[in-house]
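Lab meeting prep.
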Amino acid sequence: MGAEWELEAEAGGSLLLCAALLAAGCALGLRLGRGRGAADRGALIWLCYDALVHFALERVGKTTNQEGAGVLGSTEWNFKNTDKLL
């Protein structure tokens, strides 16, 4: 039962981070898109969210262990530990 709760806590933290990044991306995109059309604002929101997600993943990759992390260890794909992802 303990392992189940740990997995749920990790998933909850991941969802919370995703929601925070989405809110920040929307706020930033709407601010940058003032005075523009709806399609332009939507594109700016998506681009801001995408940039924030890439930045967050890059930060996670730099702070994780190279041997245990697998693919998030650097900007290049590391196929050495891909079996740990399955």
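Slide two material, second protein:
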Amino acid sequence: MAFDGTWKVDRNENYEKFMEKMGINVVKRKLAAHDNLKLIITQEGNKFTVKESSTFRSIEIIFELGVTFNYSLADGTELSGAWALEGDKLVGKFKRLDNGNELNTVREIIGGEMVQTYTYEGVEAKRIFKKE
């Protein structure tokens, strides 16, 4: 599938402002901007496995399209939501458990890169990954 493979973060767009809107403190924002995030994605039918490794942590997330699950961001923010496949995009709709606000994420392949777009409270940011 298009998302299968090992993806390493290459650059960010508006990521600092996004993290600020999420309430992440300045020290964590500075560190997160250079977290060397790597994602290893495998898809089997509707089931995805994402191995996430960064300066902060290494975790494995397993989810099925359309099935709600809980997830913790690297800063400890708890989310609940689900991923769906809409055309050639993976669309994640999540709610923060602490305040109920929505965090939406879209993963898509553009020009051989995986672009992950986050939207939270009107602020949009992108993390662009290159395939290793």
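Talking points for slide two:
The chain has two helices and ten strands.
The chain has one domain: 3-129.
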